[in-house]
Design brief:
single chain, alpha/beta, Rossmann fold, Tumour Suppressor Smad4, six-stranded parallel beta sheet, six-stranded antiparallel beta sheet, 20% helix, globular, kinase, NADK
């Protein structure tokens, strides 16, 4: 069995659990470790193991991918595996880690279940983004169209299929998957969507009018947009990675033909995650 390992490089306070967990993994599988993370565990954690080194150009061949960190680390691992649909097990060594399955200390006791194949796989939908005639990339959480200038808004003419929806005068517009409904979209008052829902949500960022609200659409909808701005350009961010584009070029966002498969070894439900990580339903009293 081969396991590819991605990790955060900022969690020295979790050193003991991370070292223990990686040592346990190395005993049950051949490891391939992300280059930057390998340098971190050698330099900062003092751990030396035999493994292959993963670079961006290394083709994904592992049976499983393990992400040790938070949601940013998980998204990086998801970009690496692309359309291979290699299952990802998210281990939280950060603060929130909404995409992760277990804390690092808990995961140590779950390795036997990994070896025995006692886990569930949860498929998460992906966005595919094109600008003009060019494929730009995929996103697990969201694609966000955003202004470049701080002092002005942009206008985003938006279509759902062939139907004109509206012109969003705003700082931007987020198109989120159910997975991304707990991320950037949530911070602008977008709704939470259950992971298996077949929907996307369009959430405006600081709209110029109060009658622009988040909108849930079926995930078989092709969302088309054009942007106009005083700066003649805008930013397109895919899971937090932003690039500039010229206004006027058509943007098309649709559901991708593949999904990202999350490993559920600890058997925490989405409701469990809401209560634990978003304090869902918690009574806050002075």
């Amino acid at each position: 069995m081969e396991i590819a390992v991605f990790g955060s490089q900022h969690k020295v306070d979790q050193a003991e659990n991370i070292v223990h967990f990686i040592c346990q993994l190395s005993q049950i599988a051949k490891l391939s470790v992300e280059r930057q993370f390998y340098g971190f565990i050698r330099r900062s954690l003092g751990l030396k193991i035999e493994c292959n080194i993963l670079d961006e150009e290394t083709l994904p061949t592992a049976n499983y991918v393990v992400s040790i960190g938070g949601d940013g680390t998980f998204l990086r691992a998801a970009r690496y595996i692309g359309a291979t649909e290699i299952p990802i097990w998210g281990i939280n060594s950060g603060r929130l880690g909404f995409l992760t399955d277990a804390d690092c200390s808990e995961a140590i006791g779950l390795i036997d279940k990994l070896v025995e194949g006692i886990f569930e796989l949860e498929s998460r939908s992906i966005l595919q983004i094109e600008v003009g005639d060019h494929y730009i990339g995929h996103a697990l959480n969201e694609a966000a169209i955003m202004k470049r200038e701080t002092g002005s808004i942009i206008t985003i003419d938006t279509y759902l299929g062939d139907d004109y929806l509206a012109a969003y005068d705003a700082d931007g517009l987020i198109i989120a998957t159910p997975t991304g409904s707990t991320a950037y979209s949530l911070s602008v008052n977008g709704p939470l969507i259950m992971p298996h829902s077949q929907d996307f949500v369009l959430s405006p960022i600081a709209p110029h009018t109060l009658n622009m609200r988040p909108l849930v659409v079926p995930d078989n909808t092709i969302i088309s947009m054009t942007v106009s701005s005083r700066s003649d350009s805008f930013l397109l961010s895919l899971d937090g990675k932003a690039s500039p584009f010229d206004c006027g070029e058509p943007i098309r966002i649709r559901k991708a033909d593949y999904s990202i498969r999350l490993m559920k070894v600890a058997n925490h439900s989405f409701a469990d995650t809401l209560r634990k990580k978003l304090m869902w339903g918690a009574a806050v009293r002075s």
